[in-house]
């Protein structure tokens, strides 16, 4: 009986390891969300490996344990690849940005979310699925007189970008073919330095291959932008998902690792980071924190501060 249990558990764990390890062979869209959980699954696999070894101490059990540890270690290494160094941490931040997917059906918390935004002291606020704030817009506009989005009633209120300073440029576009107007490209002057601000909301990775098309469109948009750049939004994938990794490498985007877990919000630090704030040199993030309260959303919001590398004040955004 002990041998039967041992081999049954070993077979199931071998299959699970093989599925997660497919990322090293192919970036199959149906498994993209699984890849985002590589570190979490690695921890689970280590636990199962230890159970297997407790049932029967055999060399194959140690091989499974080693493979599980490798998944964890490589996941951590992948996260560190996009980590920004902190060599400019002593410089004064030039602006603060908040990004939060408030959930499109989160009407009962709309007043609390509005109060939280107004109290955030953020210079720019990126709100996704902002429909519940429809009846609080005028209150928000008193503190943030410049905005993009939510101009034609609640049915058009999806992405809402708020700013205390006027926009130098502004554009609303679509990425992919699943949903419209989920890309906002703007720029704001902060003390003589123009910074590009990009808001993106990607589809879930298991919705066929829509997310791959969205990343291609987003990449083309970012390649046309020069100067300091911030990309914020809901990617519905971790930074270790192969498609997101390739995108970050191509665009030379960085963040602060480890990123705060944002989904599901109820899981706290045990969740994964699928909401992101990235920056491209000469802009650098100096802090990245999760908001204290998700206020009814299944996502946690983020707030970040940025400085310019080397005090470069000459690079104008296009």
Explain what you see.
The chain is α+β, with helices and mostly antiparallel strands and 318 residues long. It folds into 2 domains: 2-81, no CATH class; 95-311, Endonuclease/exonuclease/phosphatase (Deoxyribonuclease I, Chain A). The protein has 8 helices and 11 strands. A 6-stranded mixed β-sheet has the order 3-4-2-1-11-10, with no helix packed on it. A 5-stranded mixed β-sheet has the order 5-6-7-8-9, with no helix packed on it. The longest helix has 23 residues, at 59-81. One of its GO terms (molecular function) is exonuclease activity. The chain crosses the membrane at residues 28-52, 59-79.
What distance separates the N and C termini? 70 Å
Order of helices and strands: HHHHEHEHEEEEEHEHEEE
In angstroms, what is the radius of gyration?
A: 21 Å
Low-confidence stretches at least 5 residues in length (pLDDT < 50)? 312-318
| Counted beta strands | 11
Compute the number of structural domains. 2
Shape, principal axes of CA atoms: elongated
The CATH homologous superfamily of the largest domain is named Endonuclease/exonuclease/phosphatase
* CATH fold annotation of the largest domain: Deoxyribonuclease I, Chain A
Helix proportion range = 25-40%
CATH class of the largest domain: Alpha Beta
* Class from secondary-structure proportions: alpha+beta
Helix run count:
8
Main beta sheet strand tally, sense and closure: 6 strands, mixed
Strand portion, in percent? 15-25%
Mean pLDDT: 92
Quickly give the CATH architecture of the largest domain: 4-Layer Sandwich
